[in-house]
Specification:
The complex is a heterodimer of chains A (about 80) and B (about 400). In chain A, helix 1 packs across helix 4. Chain A has one domain: ACP-like (Non-ribosomal Peptide Synthetase Peptidyl Carrier Protein, Chain A, Orthogonal Bundle), CATH 1.10.1200. Chain A starts with a helix and ends with a helix. Chain A has 4 helices and no strands. With about 80 residues, chain A is mostly helical. Chain B is α/β, with parallel strands linked by helices and about 400 residues long. Chain B folds into 2 domains: about 240 residues, Thiolase/Chalcone synthase (Peroxisomal Thiolase, Chain A, domain 1, 3-Layer(aba) Sandwich); about 150 residues, 3-Layer(aba) Sandwich (Peroxisomal Thiolase, Chain A, domain 1). Chain B is built from 14 helices and 14 strands. In chain B, the strands form 3 sheets. In chain B, strands 5-4-6-7-1-8-14-13-9-10 form a 10-stranded mixed beta sheet, with helices on both faces. In chain B, helix 8 packs across helix 14. The longest helix of chain B has 17 residues. The chains are: A mainly alpha (about 80), B alpha/beta (about 400).
Chain lengths: ~80, ~400
């Protein structure tokens, strides 16, 4: 995953959470960031809208860190591009 | 203080269009969760719901009336008419002035709203149906029922999300008990199957992709339902004097708020509401044999509710049966408490406990006797019916058997 992609995901989470991007690193856990389940669905909504993807519930439940989230979103975007190609 | 009898029941739900069919389904443990009919599920992440099948409005209303009534208000009226008929009570002109109608409803006529806005935004129509406003208002059911029956006492609607009907029934109970009115028609109704509203639930990520398995280890969320249920409440001595069939005594009502989080439940709030209901009914924990759980089938609710029940009932928790009938009639939001109050009254009257359907495997976090998959012949002395809403609003009804 390119570094710019991680930054785009971080920007998206920061905007949804109304927190500064600097508070987040790839290894930050959602727990450390004080993100609860309701915040979580808001972030999923923001990411789905930003990247025009569908994030399944069961996959979303496994994600614990910002980096995991970015990797998952990157995989979904790649998958979508393969389907469209 | 006066006592309050439940003397009439009316139910329309995914597991039966009247009380008789509803009772049969509860006893058989039959689930009404089926593939969605009202909307195209191809565009949804979940495919199943608990819809009222084969409902024909024109069998109950003339066309002029259906123009004015959204499906949720129709459910309120159908259940109300059955409950009034079932009670056998003859209302004099004076009695009609001393009868209340209190209904619960979460979202009102949102299918009407959805259709009106599709006309505006998608079809670019310049106007909407002029009956939209009276159809959408959440009190449309209560208002129609009062007109239909000629009841001119206090009439209003309570909206507290998934606890709406319990809060409504609780208000009616308090009014009959205090002597403010002599009788009440109370319950709730909801009709939620429109595309826009289902998409909103999808975004909450709490709806199960298959079915509703309350208290099961592999539960994946709730299943949405619709319907309506109404109870006729009467002052106990009056009911006895006229020889009424009494399903149960509505003996107590407790409320609390979590003051915590808009969607995450606590165990303390529900526990406080259950304690308040027991106190209001002068019941000890050991008197209760059955709890109709809120039991939505979400990971959070069922574990939290188990903890709350253990906190209130202590050792007695292992001697009572807890089941979630939402496994059969789905989660009908503002109508849920009314459908479940009817289930409790029928359970006490007929001496059985309805099961938790679709149950597969025990969850250590939900270690109560949940009557998996099969109804149980059991005469209990008292039952609670739990409802806990988004927003942390809790309402619990307490029923006592009358024999």
């Amino acid at each position: 995953m390119p570094k710019e992609f991680l930054q785009r995901v971080i920007g998206c989470i920061a905007k949804a959470q109304r927190i500064p991007t600097e508070t987040m690193k790839a290894e930050s856990t959602f727990e450390q960031l004080g993100i609860d389940s309701l915040d979580g669905i808001n972030i999923l909504f923001a990411l789905e809208s930003e990247f025009d993807i569908e994030i399944p519930d069961n996959a979303a439940q496994q994600v614990k860190t910002v980096g995991d989230m970015a990797n998952g979103v990157f995989a979904l975007v790649e998958q979508k591009q393969r389907v469209q190609a | 203080m006066r006592r309050v009898a439940v003397t009439g029941l009316g139910v329309i739900s995914a597991i039966g269009g009247d009380t008789r069919q509803f009772l049969d389904s509860l006893q058989a443990g039959r689930s009404g969760i089926r593939p969605l009919q009202a909307v195209d599920s191809a565009l949804l992440r979940f495919k199943n719901g608990a819809e009222v099948a084969g409902f024909d409005p024109l069998a109950s209303f003339d066309p002029k009336q259906t123009d004015l009534l959204d499906r949720f208000a129709q459910f309120a009226a159908v259940a109300a008419r059955e409950a009034v008929r079932d009670s056998g009570l003859e209302w004099t002109a004076a009695a009609k002035e001393r009868t209340a109608v209190v209904t619960g409803c979460c979202v009102g006529g949102q299918a009407t709203e959805d259709a009106a806005f599709v006309d505006l935004y998608r079809h670019n129509k310049p106007r909407v149906n002029p009956m939209s406003i009276p159809r959408i208002m959440a009190n449309a059911g209560a208002s129609f029922v009062s007109m239909d029956m000629g009841f001119t006492g206090p009439v209003f609607t309570v909206s507290t999300a998934c606890a709406s009907a319990n809060h409504a029934i609780g208000q009616a109970f308090l009014m009959v008990r205090s002597g403010m009115v002599d009788a009440a028609l109370t319950g709730g109704s909801e009709a939620i199957f429109s595309y826009g509203f289902l998409k909103a639930w999808e975004a909450m990520r709490v709806v199960s992709p298959d079915t509703c398995r309350p208290f099961s280890r592999d539960r994946q969320g709730l299943i949405l339902g619709e319907g309506g249920a109404m109870l006729v409440l009467e002052e106990m001595d009056e009911a006895r004097a006229r020889g009424a069939r009494i399903y149960a005594e509505l003996a107590g009502f407790g409320m609390s708020a979590d003051a915590h989080h808009i969607t995450q439940p606590t165990w303390e709030g529900p526990a406080a509401a259950m304690r308040a209901a027991l106190e209001s009914a002068s019941l000890a924990p050991a008197d209760v044999g059955y709890i109709n759980a809120h039991g939505t089938g979400t990971l959070a609710n069922d574990a939290t509710e188990t903890k709350a029940i253990r906190a209130v009932f202590g050792e007695s928790a292992d001697r009572l049966v807890v089941s979630s009938t939402k496994s059969m009639h789905g989660h009908a939001l503002g109508a849920a408490g009314a459908i479940e109050a009817a289930a409790c009254a029928l359970s006490l009257h007929h001496g059985f406990v309805p099961p938790t359907a679709n149950y597969t495997a025990p969850d250590p976090a939900c270690d109560l006797d949940v009557a998996p998959n099969e109804a149980r012949q059991l005469r209990v002395g008292a039952a609670l019916s739990n409802a806990f809403a988004f927003g942390g609003l809790n309402a619990v009804l307490a029923f006592r058997a009358v024999r």
